[in-house]
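sorry for the late reply, my laptop died twice this morning and i had to redo everyting from scratch. anyway the thing you sent over, i finally got around to it. pasting the sequence first so we're on the same page, its 185 residues, then the predicted structure underneath. double check i copied it right bc i was rushing
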Amino acid sequence: MRLILSFLFFGCAAQAQSFSKNLLTFSGGWANQIGPSYESESATSLGLTYGYRPSHYLEFEAGIQTALKPGPEIRGANYDFKPDDRYIWIPFGVRVIAPVAEDRVELSVGGGGLYQRYSISNSGSGFFGFDPYNAWGGYGVASAAVALDRGRHFWLGASPRFFIANGESHRDRWVTITGEFGFRF
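ok and here's the structure:
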């Protein structure tokens, strides 16, 4: 009887694991600040995201995304300041997934909370108005991805993301467009 119950349990458990639950995604692309600013800042964006799928259509995700050196160069008669700054975003939220074409193509939308850190490495940057700060906010994401192999372990996709962060004296609005390479396990 124990042997039969063991086979029944493991058979059900194997069927429950018919899809890979974990996804690690590397992304790279372009970030652009939007909003009332007189000069739009843009930068290279890199990111890493981990997703966990408790079901076939739902994924919890958390990650880190950056915008490297978005600040403009400031020139004057006696100075030339190039800020060594960066935005670091830590989004955490949920995604709804729609598998298409025999689970080889996936479309998804999601959103959640966001922690943002703006930092600068140049000394004397406060003179030019570049001060580090933290902010909280939210994000939204849409994605399309296609499986590169039959086992659906390697994925290639693209995602636009929208970040909103409000600090004490800053109101940041950013959009990123990235290409993504994912490994599902």
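Strands lie at 22-33, 42-55, 58-68, 74-75, 80-81, 85-100, 105-120, 133-147, 154-166, 171-184.
thats about all i looked at so far, will dig more tmrw
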